[in-house]
Amino acid sequence: MKFKNIKIKQGQKVIINEYSGTIPTTGIISVVGPNGIGKTTLLKALAGLIPYEGVILDQATLTYLPQKNRFYDAIKVDEFLGLVPTNHPQAGWRKQVFKQLDIADLQGKNVNTLSGGQQQRVWLAFSLIQSKSILMLDEPLTYLDLKYQQRFLSLISTASQFCTIIQIVHDLNIANQYSDIVWLLTVKTLLAGTPTQVLTATNLNIVFATTVKIHRTSAGQRWFSV
């Protein structure tokens, strides 16, 4: 899937200014940038949810999970997840997702009675078990405690072998460690490349208007602080 010269306005204000890029058939893309730069807006445009100028080529099947989700009707966890067909091409994937996110502990419960973190696990499971080429996840780590953050990141690492994950994240260390490609959004352009290519001190200091420090462990792995 490719997009070219994507431009989005809210009234007279330009939110996205002629971004272009390519989405590979597999891998993890992490979208980073300051608040209000247009990360969510870009994903919504690529998912066909809002109007835009420009061209999207080779449109793929996709799922988009917003940052904030609500259940408006009383529905049990197993009923909700049962809405997704069980014919995923990866044998055992549905079972693996449910196990890692401890969905069995939530079965039979009304989703509206669950905590924010529990509801997020249900929404992530709902998205991950769908048989789509691209999964767009807007801040998927929201509400998750450390254990489920790690389990989710392990799941998308596996999923990225048979589909493309596009996730919006704020933690540069997660973007650095769990991405094949990083999209760094600026006021004027979309910078795309490997984490090493994009997440440089120069780029980050300019985009976030603050000093971002890059460190290295004894093994040579990069980590970030402010």
UniProtKB/TrEMBL annotation:
Keyword Nucleotide-binding listed? The answer is: yes
**Known InterPro entries for this protein?**
AAA+_ATPase, ABC_transporter-like_ATP-bd, Metal_Ion_Import_ABC, P-loop_NTPase
> Transmembrane ranges?
none
- Alphabetically ordered keywords of this record: ATP-binding, Nucleotide-binding, Transport
Tell me the ranges covered by the ABC transporter domain, including all copies. Answer: 1-211
Q: MF terms per GO, please?
A: ATP binding
Q: Which domain of life is it from?
A: Bacteria
Q: Which Pfam families match?
A: ABC_tran
The UniProt entry, under PANTHER family, shows:
METAL TRANSPORT SYSTEM ATP-BINDING PROTEIN TM_0124-RELATED (PTHR42734), MOLYBDATE IMPORT ATP-BINDING PROTEIN MOLC (PTHR42734:SF6)
**What is stated as this protein's family in its record?**
Belongs to the ABC transporter superfamily.
Name of this chain's protein:
ABC transporter ATP-binding protein
Organismal lineage:
Bacteria, Bacillati, Bacillota, Bacilli, Lactobacillales
